[in-house]
């Protein structure tokens, strides 16, 4: 069996970097696609079966994006990427302006809070703006390992600038 490994290059800017999927063929000629995520965990897809392995995490900053070619049920090939971004958001009297939920082991942004007229939502004003379905990875550099942990980290952050590390899935 032939295996190709893609190692992400170090990132020195806040601009997300993308990488191409690593594709190999095994002895039977079946196509394998390795999806290298920003946290260096890999998933191999082979004939609709998958297995995964993990290694050490990368630091919470803008990191290389993972890319994998996927074939949808309609037979259309899509390129799926995951970006890891550090979002600067201002925490004030109205909090961060988001509702979060734990789903499939990840803490995800599910909606923007309704705020009083004339009050701008901090999540929409963040740089870059928060998006629905962003996965919260860390709060001020502290990993969010569970919903409870994430809420505790957000509540304990003082008013002012908070850095949320998020992962964002992009399908093109």
From TrEMBL:
Gene3D superfamilies: 2.30.42.10. Residues 1-24, 49-74 have a biased composition (Low complexity). Residues 1-80 are annotated as: Disordered. Residues 86-169 form the PDZ domain. This is PDZ domain-containing protein. It comes from Octactis speculum.
């Amino acid at each position: 069996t032939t295996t190709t490994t893609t190692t992400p290059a170090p990132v020195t800017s806040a601009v997300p970097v993308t990488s191409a999927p690593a594709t190999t063929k095994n002895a039977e000629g079946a196509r394998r696609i390795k999806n290298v995520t920003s946290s260096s965990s890999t998933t191999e897809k082979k004939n609709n079966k998958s297995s995964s392995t993990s290694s050490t995490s990368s630091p919470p900053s803008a990191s290389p994006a993972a890319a994998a070619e996927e074939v949808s049920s309609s037979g259309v090939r899509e390129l799926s990427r995951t970006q890891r971004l550090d979002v600067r958001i201002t925490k004030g009297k109205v909090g961060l302006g988001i509702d979060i939920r734990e789903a499939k082991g990840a803490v995800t942004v599910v909606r923007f809070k309704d705020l009083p007229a004339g009050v701008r939502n901090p999540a929409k004003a963040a740089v870059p703006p928060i998006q629905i379905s962003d996965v919260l990875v860390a709060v001020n550099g502290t990993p969010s390992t569970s919903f409870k942990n994430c809420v505790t980290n957000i509540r304990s952050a003082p008013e002012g600038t908070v850095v949320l590390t998020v992962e964002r899935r992009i399908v093109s």
